[in-house]
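Q: Okay, next protein. This is CBS domain-containing protein from Maribacter aurantiacus. I've checked the sequence twice, so it should be correct. Can you predict the 3D structure?
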Amino acid sequence: MSLRHRVPVSTIMTKKIITLNSNDQLETAERLFKEHHIRHIPVVEGDAIIGMLSLTDLLRISFADGAYEEDSDVETIVYNMFTISQVMAKNLKSISSNTTIKEVAEILANKEFHALPVVDDEKLVGIVTTTDLIKYLLEQY
């Protein structure tokens, strides 16, 4: 298998990004996760990324309260107790669109997160996930 070493992440990243603002409700986030079948949503202020919300983070707070009965009212109450700013990951590592796929693979393999924001000139231009990476690697076989 010969991987083309200099292929930039821009060739595999998602460019149509679903985003949230820090003043959105967690219920909105949950709806977006379900509607778009995604697991990570960047939280932005204008064009700049300020955090990343993952589906895991959301599940963690709803489980923490034993709120996964069939009763979605309980869930709503739990979601209203938290803000997106409180739940999102803030110490993000971002990459630029010309970072190589190989570098992205190394970062994702060594870190505990599964998605990286792609930022050029302080503007969020894409998001790349472990799933994008795996799909790319499979295409190489």
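A: Here is a summary of the prediction. Residues 9-139 form a domain with the CBS-domain fold (CATH 3.10.580.10). The first strand starts at residue 40 and ends at 45.
Q: Noted. On to the next one.
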